[in-house]
Amino acid sequence: MTDRSTATTTDTYIAAFPAETQAMLREIRALIKASAPAATETISYAIPTFDLGGRHLVHFAGYAQHVGFYPTGNGIAAFADELKPYKHARGSLQFPLGGPLPRDLIRRIVEFRVAESAGRRLE
């Protein structure tokens, strides 16, 4: 197993996890790519990150019991009511392993962050 803390690509990072976690990480990655096609992938803070316009758009990461999604504080605040079923904090969100990902919610959060990055609001 690769030491994911030294991963230099998203593929290497994801490969360091067990199969179930890899599947969820790949799914989140695909949702982000589809929702922010102009964003570029990088590793920042030792986790996969998508950048847009020279700034971090969202991050995601794997853990023993969940997958983390980090759409900044604004991304969390804008969807606070819909995030009630999930453990979350000011800029982070957790999706338990073994459960379904809220695909539509992730997509909308990423689209919100893209619009925010471009200086416009989604209503």
How would you describe what is shown here?
This protein has 123 residues and is of the alpha+beta class. The chain has a single domain, classed as Aspartate Aminotransferase, domain 1 (Alpha-Beta Complex). It is built from four helices and five strands, in the order ααββββαβα. The chain has a five-stranded antiparallel sheet with strand order 1-2-3-4-5. A hairpin with a 2-residue loop joins strand 1 and strand 2. It starts with 9 loop residues before the first helix and ends in a 6-residue tail after the last helix.
Rg is 14 Å
Question: Main beta sheet: strand number and arrangement?
Answer: 5 strands, antiparallel
Number of domains: 1
CATH domain class: Alpha Beta
Strand content: 15-25%
Per CATH, which architecture?
A: Alpha-Beta Complex
- What is the N-to-C succession of helices and strands? HHEEEEHEH
Mean pLDDT: 92
Determine the structural class based on helices, strands and strand pairing.
alpha+beta
User: What's the β-strand tally?
Assistant: 5
CA-based shape: globular
Terminal Cα span = 44 Å
Q: In the CATH scheme, what's the topology name?
A: Aspartate Aminotransferase, domain 1
